[in-house]
Amino acid sequence: MRQVFEAFRLAYDQGRSQREIARALGLSQSTVNDYLRRFRGTGLPWPTPPEVDEAAVEARLFATDVPAARGRAAPEWATIHGELKHKGVTLELLWIEYKQ
Questions:
Q1: What confidence score (pLDDT) does residue 7 get?
Q2: How far apart are CA 67 and CA 65, in angstroms?
Q3: Maximum alpha-carbon separation in the chain
Q4: Residue 49 needs a FRET pair 20 to 30 A away by CA distance; which of 17, 60, 91, 95 works?
Q5: CA-CA distance, 100 to 97, in Å (whole number)?
Q6: 12/48 Cα distance (integer angstroms)
Q7: How many CA within 13 A on the CB side of residue 43?
Q8: Average pLDDT along the chain, 100 residues, taken 10 residues at a time
Q9: What Cα–Cα distance (Å) separates residue 97 from each residue in 2, 11, 80?
Q10: Given phi > 0 = left and psi -120 to 50 = alpha, else beta, which region is 27?
Q11: Rounded distance, CA 93 to CA 35, Å?
């Protein structure tokens, strides 16, 4: 968590580029980009207000997104495996049936 706040400090206080931050902290540029994107998404100002502690910022940054339930149930893989053993049955045919 310390690296996350160090990335914010380097970006917002010192105006460093994501490449420079990544090099300084030993992170990939995509990780630095992800941290900064998540922080912008929280709507918090930098520096964070004193009443907002690191745990609260971390909870906002890394809140787990619950995936939306899909309308279709997952296929039964054992059944599909058994069906593929029949002559003339292809994965494409099973896919077409599944989509309907």
A1: 95
A2: 6
A3: 69
A4: 17
A5: 5
A6: 11
A7: 0
A8: 91 96 96 94 90 88 70 82 93 89
A9: 51, 52, 11
A10: beta
A11: 43
Does residue 43 contact residue 61 with C-beta atoms inside 8 Å?
no
- The residue assigned the tokens 């992170």 is 27
End-to-end CA distance of the chain: 47
Distance CA 6, CA 64 (A): 23
- pLDDT at res. 73: 76
Q: What is the pTM of this model?
A: 0.62
Three-state SS string over the chain comes to CHHHHHHHHHHHHCCCCHHHHHHHHCCCHHHHHHHHHHHHHHCCCCCCCCCCCHHHHHHHHCCCCCCCCCCCCCCCHHHHHHHHCCCCCCHHHHHHHHHC
- Reported as half-sphere exposure (CB side, CA atoms, 13 A), residue 83 has a value of 15
